[in-house]
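> example.struct
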């Protein structure tokens, strides 16, 4: 089994081309759990599987979290897989990638930087408090795509000076809050300067903080744009793994597109030889 490992702003993924490997779909949850384990195998936040398109795209992306659960979409993963698609000849500099939550379009800017249009928001609730640790916490709630990928945007003043350990208990409680029937990715944020945001995301399926979350970054900037707190034009978001940029195209209060731009990194590629992997 051949694999490629990539990361986008520290959000890391294992990519398998199933048009070549022809692995039964039922095995991917177990493959994800095995290969994504950071101490026992390759290690990653998630597994991305490349499949034939079903609806006229260049190819299809299936996403599995490190715990084996399926994901609706992944923004940083989409940027990485666009680079993979371009460099392996699956598509050109402009790509149409099918995902379970809708079509994602991507564009190559240069060798390492890619821009993707995230799936459109299907739910936007700018004032949506959620109960956690015995208190109602102010949040915005956004789902991207259909079915929607759920995100809570939570203002955290002084976030730059806080460690993940200080926020982990609250993040876990919000992730499982009854306010979010599907659970939610929890995105803590703070505005540090005009159109400059710092963000830290606790992700479903990983069940911990990650170095970056592309859809979470898009959801935070969308909420802040609609609230009038950022311009929505090339907003810079600092995450533990680097920096991402988001632009919100809109017509008055109608959101037309969410664009995510950032770096990609090819870490390694080779043959999976994990003896604990049974397929």
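> example.seq
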């Amino acid at each position: 089994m051949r694999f490629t490992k990539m990361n986008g702003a520290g959000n890391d993924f294992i990519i398998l081309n199933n048009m070549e490997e022809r692995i039964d779909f039922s095995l991917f949850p177990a493959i994800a759990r095995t290969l994504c384990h950071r101490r026992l195998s390759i290690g990653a936040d998630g597994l991305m599987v490349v499949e034939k398109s079903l609806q006229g795209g260049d190819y299809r992306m299936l996403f599995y979290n490190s715990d084996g659960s399926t994901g609706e979409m992944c923004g940083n993963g989409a940027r990485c897989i666009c680079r993979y698609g371009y460099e392996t000849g699956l598509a050109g500099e402009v790509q149409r990638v099918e995902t379970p939550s809708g079509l994602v379009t991507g564009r190559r800017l240069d060798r390492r930087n890619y821009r993707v249009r995230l799936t459109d928001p299907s739910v936007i609730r700018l004032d949506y408090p959620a109960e956690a640790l015995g208190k109602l916490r102010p949040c915005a709630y956004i789902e991207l795509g259909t079915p929607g990928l759920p995100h809570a945007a939570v203002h955290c003043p002084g976030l730059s000076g806080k460690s993940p350990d200080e926020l982990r208990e609250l993040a876990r409680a919000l992730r499982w809050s009854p306010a979010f029937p599907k659970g939610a990715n929890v995105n803590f944020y703070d505005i540090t300067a005009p159109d400059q945001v710092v963000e830290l995301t606790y992700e479903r399926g990983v069940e911990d903080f990650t170095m970056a979350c592309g859809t979470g970054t898009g959801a935070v900037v969308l909420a802040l744009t609609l609230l009038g707190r950022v311009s929505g034009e090339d907003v810079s978001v600092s995450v533990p793994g680097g920096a991402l940029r988001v632009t919100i195209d809109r017509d008055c209060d109608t959101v037309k597109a969410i664009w995510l731009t950032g770096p990609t990194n090819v870490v390694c590629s080779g043959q999976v030889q994990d003896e604990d992997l049974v397929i």
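> remarks
DSSP finds five helices and 20 strands in the chain.
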